[in-house]
Design a protein that fits this description.
Helix Hairpins; minor pseudopilin epsh fold; binds manganese (II) ion; mainly alpha; globular
């Protein structure tokens, strides 16, 4: 069964004014779709066709040399963007419950967590992602990855938040102003989804 581009769980203009409709249409319908197409082409006729993309990434070392780079880049792109769309929503807000406690325990406060996350997003030279992950022991960690690499290839890490800092994610609206995009992105984080990921990671 081929990998498929998932539908957005909201309208293309639902994240306005923080993320514009045209960026969402292009990012989802062109960039993410291309990762899906390229992943399908790479794994056609192999056993990887029938696996979850995150399961493939967790065992990237089992992918044959001749398609490993394609799977790493396009499988990573498919997994990262799928998580990215689900991480966002029009309502914003702030975390509560165990997730809020976990963030306060790890970083001191939500603002301190955001500052560290934003710094990771800004320090990523070129294209990549910033992440908040839960580690195997339940602790929280922030880091960034280049290109379409991500937490799935880091043993035991569960991504809670992922922010795309490729220029294609913000250039139409923000041009070179990555810091403004990163700061504004917090307005569209769906904390209910993040809390659910945290609960299943530490549960
Ligand atoms: Mn992207």
């Amino acid at each position: 069964m081929a990998f498929e581009l998932p539908s957005l769980p909201y309208a293309f203009d639902a994240l306005e004014p923080w993320i514009d409709e045209q960026t969402m249409r292009t990012h989802h319908g062109k960039h993410h779709a291309t990762y899906v197409d390229n992943l399908n082409n790479a794994v056609a006729g192999t056993a990887f066709e029938d696996m979850e993309v995150t399961a493939i990434l967790k065992k990237l070392y089992t992918v044959p040399d001749e398609i490993r780079a394609a799977v790493r880049n396009n499988g990573g792109g498919h997994a990262n963007h799928t998580l990215f769309w689900e991480t966002m929503g029009p309502n914003g807000g702030a975390p509560s419950g165990p997730l809020a406690d976990g963030i306060a325990g790890a970083f001191g406060s939500l603002d301190d967590c955001k500052s560290s996350f934003n710094a990771a997003a800004m320090a990523r030279f070129g294209s990549g992602w910033a992440w908040l992950v839960a580690r195997l022991d339940g602790s929280l960690l922030i880091y960034s990855t280049p290109n379409q690499d991500g937490p799935y290839t880091q043993t035991g890490d569960t991504p809670l938040l992922g922010l795309d800092v490729w220029e294609h994610a913000y250039y139409l609206k923000y041009q070179n102003r990555r810091a403004e995009y990163v700061e504004n992105w917090w307005n569209v984080v769906n904390w209910d989804v993040v809390a659910a990921r945290y609960a299943s990671a530490v549960g």
